[in-house]
Amino acid sequence: MTNTKRAADLRSARWFAKDDFRSFGHRSRVLQMGYSHEDFTAKPVIAIVNTWSDANQCHTHFKQRVEDVKRGILQAGGWPLELPAISLSESMVKPTSMLYRNFLAMETEELLRSHPVDGAVLMGGCDKTTPGLLMGALSMGLPCIYLPAGPMLRGNWRGQALGSGSDAFKYWDERRAGRLSDRAWAEMEAGIARSHGTCMTMGTAATMMGIAEALGFTLPGASSIPAPDANHIRMSAECGRRIVQMVWDDLTPARLLSPGSFQNAIAVAMAMGCSTNAIIHLVAISRRAGLPVTLDDFDAASRHVGVIANIRPSGDRYLMEDFFYAGGLPALMHVMRDKLDVSALTVNGKTVAENIAGAEVFNDDVIRPVNNPIYAEGALAVLRGNLAPDGVVIKPSAVAPHLLRHTGRAIVFDDYPSLKAAVDDPDLDVTGDDILVLRNAGPKGAGMPEWGMLPIPTKLLKQGVTDMLRLSDARMSGTSYGGCLLHCSPEAFIGGPLALVKTGDRITVDVPARSIHLEVSDEELAARRAAWTPPPPRYERGYGWMFGRHILQAHEGCDFDFLETQFGAPVPEPVIY
Ligand code: FES
């Protein structure tokens, strides 16, 4: 292959190539680490942005995989530079990892900007790491390749497969209803996460890794490989080899991405039965790329792309390990190729058409034919109305069908602690026809945590109620399910209509008509608005202070307003004094 770049053109040459005092300092410090001039002179410097930490169990294997990536970089004639970044464990970071997605995006961009780097391997997987890494790398604009952590193995409990999140939620309700013993619950705790890797349902992690592949940022098939599989090790080394050539080819995100890349990402998300979080993250990524997509693009796609990945929680049985054995994402994309822009480019320098040519499905109950979807439409739907002028999101494929058209009485909670305290109250005035409402859980209100699958009151669980409508300005875990209306925008904390709802009001939801209506007159709503006073800011110092002032609303992707730059514009480079 012919390089389009010369060694003298490498960005890192500014640090290492000159015969001046500063370059002397840079070279002497590399020599200090034990490298020789031959190791790094005139070679692409590849940053490995590694989100490993002891706090992120989904990325435990990154400690080893980074060595595999380095091996690949060295084999291809590059020089690896590992740069650790915040690991954002979905299960450990409080109050919510969403508070820090943009932190990782900023960190990634600035790590790449401030160091002598020509290209990057981005190592992520746990929910917010994929969008955070991609957003930052897109803004910096250097050639980059995404290395997905891959899903963990299926959970196991008494010979039964367990799915991350989904089964925890399901059996927690069973326990609250008094139908599961302490011993069974303890066994489950030890069996639901039995290897490294991300959640293995079609949660946010699997969704976003799949989206990264559909956008063209991973090697073909990379997003489906289970974390402990030897294929994952080989894929990691190949990422290292490939990024070196991407630098020589100057294959930047600006050259790689097109409107078709985002069309593919949305269509694939729908076909996978994606997490609702895909909307927020992909909107944010697209705006960084200067190729913005909107909620309407998702709703439109959901009407003509069926859910063909039979993976929980939309599916009834299978997990990501099954998806990999069935052929993984290349097989799914091959099945739905008529919905894709197969001319879109990917990091291996080939088009989607070239990458998926010959991909086969090895289990057509896991990856269904398009004429036998698990849902003909409905991975996601966006409703609007006087309660959500900028939209509210629902996952119809995971909702009890009788709730898709429903009018119910609102039971309103101003914060999560009061909701949590109420749901176990045996005297709570609630029926399965009511609509639970939680507010002040949006971006500015609480950092938009995954509280949106509001717990069904224990009293109703004991009556056998398994689903009811629940409305909030929060998000929910991609492993969640049920009649949850999410991302209500604008949020209550800034005076969105959700702030005006009172317990006892009636709300009408019509998913097929894409509408949500608060059955209260305009005059009454105006009076309530006049009486509403904004709550004080959540944070008065530090990162939270900045977050509260600059976070955009859910339908805008929750990026910081000052980070939405013009994609492709010259990147400010650090001055080397
Ligand atoms: Fe990391 Fe679910 S906790 S992907």
From TrEMBL:
Residues of the Dihydroxy-acid/6-phosphogluconate dehydratase C-terminal domain: 365-558
Keywords: Iron, Iron-sulfur, Lyase, Metal-binding
Lineage of producing organism: Bacteria, Pseudomonadati, Pseudomonadota, Betaproteobacteria, Burkholderiales
Pfam families in the cross-refs: ILV_EDD_C, ILVD_EDD_N
Coiled-coil region(s): none
Originating organism: Pelomonas baiyunensis
PANTHER family (alphabetical): DIHYDROXY-ACID DEHYDRATASE, HYPOTHETICAL DIHYDROXYACID DEHYDRATASE (EUROFUNG)-RELATED
Family per record: Belongs to the IlvD/Edd family.
Domain Dihydroxy-acid/6-phosphogluconate dehydratase N-terminal: 43-355
Key word Iron-sulfur present: yes
Its EC number(s): 4.2.1.9
PROSITE patterns, sorted: ILVD_EDD_1 (PS00886)
Protein name: L-arabinonate dehydratase
Keyword Transport: no
Any GO molecular function: dihydroxy-acid dehydratase activity
